Amino acid sequence: MSADEVDYVSGRTRLFGIVGHPIAQVRSPEMFTAEFKARGQDAILLPFHVLPEDFDLVVPALMRMPNLDGLIFTIPFKQRAILLAQEIGANAKIVGAVNALARTDGGWRADIFDGLGCVEAFRRRGFSFKGRRVMVIGAGGAGSAIAVAVAHQGPALIRLFDVDDVRVAELASKVRIVDSLITVETGPARHEGFDVLLNASPVGMLEDARLPIEATTFDRSLIVFDAIVKPETTPLLALAERSGCVTVRGREMMSGQISRMTDYFGLPTGKST
User: Fold this and answer.
1) Model-level pTM?
2) Can you list the domains of the chain with their CATH numbers?
3) Angle at the Cα of 199 (from 193 to 100), degrees rounded to 5?
């Protein structure tokens, strides 16, 4: 190889992208590309910064590229992206949002993996949601996916909060569909009396120093999760750590879903030929 060349991209490389606004906070390009390379695949995932007003023009145009095999969607596009697919997975139908779009022989299929990634992150830590009292902040695409996935694990209670009352009410209905035995509450975010606090809102992302909940300390028995990947230690997680709580990071959720999403994109686990 010449000194003026690199060995990880060429004209044969298959392309994948993550679409969001903002985009600087995502870790998908480095983490998914590492998974592709570990599988021996000539593929790379790139960040696509798309403005909300350009989404309907830019993304369908990208999907016409023959060497683009999949897209990941992050804030604020998970609900809008569901309209791009000809085939929608069971989880996505309940949640009403997607975060993965994969090319098929006949078009595009879509599903959502955020909730599965969150549950897997807790499982890897040895924590169960069964019988727990869970506070979920954020009822957008990620929050809906997480709440629905957690509902499948048999918690005793789920309380939901979002600045959009309509979205909260819709998510409460979805949780009740999953398991009618779960007590479902809506209202302001609280931490007292809860076993698990899950933040799926964008509050605390990048340079945002705000907390998604009013608090100066937590009971040390509370398990605190933040879906935000960058920064890895959000203001919420920093407060939880000062309070002596166990914390679960957004990067752990990402790790929990990468392998399943790469499978969904159709990339085999063995070496490519």
Assistant:
1) 0.83
2) 14-113+257-264 (3.40.50.10860), 115-253 (3.40.50.720)
3) 140
